[in-house]
Design a protein that fits this description.
The structure holds 2 protein chains of 2 kinds. Chain A contains no helices and 11 strands. By secondary structure, chain A is mainly beta. Chain B is an all-beta fold. Helices cover 0% and strands 56% of the residues of chain B. Chain B has strands spanning 4-7, 10-13, 19-25, 31-37, 43-50, 53-57, 64-70, 73-78, 87-94, 102-103, 107-111. In chain B, strands 2, 4, 5, 6, 9, 10 and 11 form a 7-stranded mixed sheet that branches. A 4-stranded antiparallel sheet of chain B has the order 1-3-8-7, with no helix packed on it. Chain B is globular and about 40 Å long. The A-B interface holds A 34, 36, 38, 41-46, 49, 85, 87, 89, 97, 99-100, 102, 104-105 and B 4, 40-45, 48, 55-56, 90, 92, 99-106.
């Protein structure tokens, strides 16, 4: 069964304390892995798409990496405004169409 | 201008009622989606429409019926609402081959 698991469920960091969030997947027919940020009361906001193992994408303090089994979202020197829930999703091909599966997210809290 | 807008933002209604949620996107995307986010923040796809044609219909009760009058609109109608339907419903859109989804801000449905 296709599955996406994110860890940890919740993470508290001090401002400036770097860390990584994990998204592991067991799927067939992967056609992209996506990272989103979701703030309370809002819809998820697109961050990155990764397509192949070894690929990396960066945006400000965030860097996403991809292997054949998992993706990491590295947060370098986080600030309180980075506090949010981070979601990963995989896109699969099934019966000639795309299918998306989301993980349950990591709730990040950065303390000043 | 809001890229994906959905109304209403909040909806409180009694069991057994019929209600609709509207969604419009002004991005020119060719695919629109409805997602349900439960209390544990898990996002699960319900429907996907590509150019007004239904292409994904996950296992949801047939009390839920999507309607797409044109490429820019995807509405969700729910009959005979039940307590378990309480959740946040997100509309999203995407363009084939482009970056990830653009989500609306969500509709929090509470059935009492």
């Amino acid at each position: 069964e296709d599955q996406v698991t994110q860890s940890p469920e919740a993470l508290r960091l001090q401002e400036g304390e770097s860390s990584s969030l994990n998204c592991s997947y067991t799927v067939s027919g992967l056609r992209g892995l996506f990272w989103y940020r979701q703030d309370p009361g809002k819809g998820p906001e697109f961050l990155f798409t990764l397509y192949s193992a070894g690929e990396e994408k960066e945006k400000e303090r965030l860097k996403a990496t991809l292997t054949k089994k998992e993706s990491f979202l590295h947060i370098t020197a986080p600030k309180p405004e980075d506090s949010a829930t981070y979601l990963c999703a995989v896109r699969l091909t099934t019966s000639g169409t795309y299918k998306y599966i989301f993980g349950t997210g990591t709730r990040l809290k950065v303390l000043a | 201008d809001t890229a994906v807008s959905q109304t209403p933002k909040y909806l409180v209604t009694q069991m057994g009622n019929d209600k609709s949620i509207k969604c419009e996107q002004n991005l020119g995307h060719d695919t629109m989606y409805w997602y349900k986010q439960d209390s544990k923040k898990f996002l699960k796809i319900m429907f996907s429409y590509n150019n007004k044609e239904l292409i994904i219909n996950e296992t949801v009760p047939n009390r839920f019926s999507p309607k797409s009058p044109d490429k820019a609109h995807l509405n969700l109608h729910i009959n005979s609402l039940e307590l378990g339907d309480s959740a946040v419903y997100f509309c999203a859109s995407s363009q084939v081959g482009k970056r990830g989804y653009t989500f609306g801000s969500g509709t929090r449905l509470t059935v009492v």
